[in-house]
Amino acid sequence: MILILLGPPGAGKGTQARRLQEEFHLKQIATGDLVREEIASGSDLGKRIKAIIDRGEYPDDQIFIDMFRREMSKPAKGFICDGFPRTINQAQVLDDFLTEIKKPLTAVIEMDVDQELLIKRLSGRFNCKECKASYNDYFSPTLKEGVCDICGSTEFFRRSDDNPEAVKRRFEVYREQTSQLVDFYQAKGLLYRVNGNNAPDEVHAEIVRLIHKLTSSEVSIKLSSS
């Protein structure tokens, strides 16, 4: 099984991918994780990627293509692609690669989320500097202001690209880049949509129902734009 999760930053792709990975024993390949690992390495490429992301932009196609080909060449029961492909060029390269390794794409699942909700999810999130516990100003603040619920630390940090203006720009770039991508997969009959505005458990249940229907061949559902 090979799944692609689409959705703007903050849609919850990573959360859903991790749960699907455990439930269906698939290997998660996340653009965000690969990029963060590269940045953390302190390499020249990592520094270049960080500068691009801090501007609210995305690295060029070839960087992602090379990383994903490397990961998908490793043995696994199946894959969940989180954040890739993002452009038509990436999608076509992925198609060619899957044909080469004789592994067909099962489904492309797009998580639809309202822009204002995304801004709150991203601009409001912060982490404890000591234990890395995650919080959000709007949805899950610390029980005691300025104190981590887990370890009691009073030091926190936010990602540099989570300011509201950068978040808006990332959303706009996502829409610009993926509008054709959505049409591309819809034309192939592979595109399915779920409501990413819902709570994570509800989104997960909707995706699992869809996967069971697809893999059991009991029902063929093709969701199109409303």
Automatic annotation (TrEMBL):
From the UniProt entry, list the residue stretches annotated as the region NMP. 30-59
User: What keywords does the record list, in alphabetical order?
Assistant: ATP-binding, Cytoplasm, Kinase, Metal-binding, Nucleotide biosynthesis, Nucleotide-binding, Transferase, Zinc
What GO cellular component term, any one, is given?
Answer: cytoplasm
Look up the signal peptide feature and give its range: none
Decide whether keyword Manganese is in the record: no
Q: Where does ATP bind?
A: 10-15, 125, 134-135, 198
One GO molecular-function annotation for this sequence?
A: ATP binding
Domain annotation text?
Answer: Consists of three domains, a large central CORE domain and two small peripheral domains, NMPbind and LID, which undergo movements during catalysis. The LID domain closes over the site of phosphoryl transfer upon ATP binding. Assembling and dissambling the active center during each catalytic cycle provides an effective means to prevent ATP hydrolysis. Some bacteria have evolved a zinc-coordinating structure that stabilizes the LID domain.
Q: What is this protein called?
A: Adenylate kinase
The species this protein belongs to is: Candidatus Nucleicultrix amoebiphila FS5
